[in-house]
Design a protein that fits this description.
This protein is mainly α. It contains 6 helices and 5 strands; from the N terminus they run E-H-H-E-E-E-H-E-H-H-H. The protein has one domain. Helix content is 45%, strand content 11%. The structure holds iron/sulfur cluster (SF4) (2 copies). One iron/sulfur cluster binds next to loops.
């Protein structure tokens, strides 16, 4: 599975809300897959990824907010000490992004400009407990 770095955060904060029904259904399926198989290898990418594939904001192989999402990716990579092109297990990336971003002051610093922040800031995260439904 390919993931952009900032999506490590979004997956853990996901509570069933998305851009449209197709995107939300796809994201729910991805979250469920990762929860069931935390050892899954994840390739970090700086382009469109598994989640983007079902997003209405994807235009060809680009995001229509490319500059904004690239800045989010860079901030998460820096905070977690990870790089595009690396392959790590989901459980390792989940732990890194949870402890270094989601459960630190960096969460506000990195995510406060996102349209979903008002929702995500109220979602608690804990190890191995993504918020998506197990369906
Ligand atoms: S605020 Fe935005 S970037 Fe941050 S976790 Fe939520 S959806 Fe992802
Ligand atoms: S295309 Fe853009 S808005 Fe859509 S999931 Fe990917 S990074 Fe997020």
């Amino acid at each position: 599975m390919k993931l952009r770095a900032h999506h490590l955060l979004c997956i853990q904060k996901f509570t069933g809300h998305g851009y449209d029904a197709a995107f939300t259904a796809h994201m729910t399926a991805v979250c469920t897959q990762l929860r069931r198989s935390p050892e899954s290898p994840v390739l970090l990418t700086d382009g469109c990824d598994t989640l983007c594939s079902a997003c209405p904001h994807r235009v060809g192989s680009f995001c229509d907010s490319a500059e904004k999402v690239s800045a989010l990716d860079a901030a998460v990579c820096k905070a977690c000490g990870i790089q595009t092109g690396a392959v790590c297990s989901w459980e390792r990336l989940r732990e890194l992004s949870r402890t270094r971003v989601l459960q630190s002051k960096l969460f506000h610093a990195i995510c406060c400009g996102c349209q979903w922040y008002a929702l995500c800031r109220h979602v608690e995260v804990s190890d191995g407990n993504e918020n998506c439904s197990d369906t």
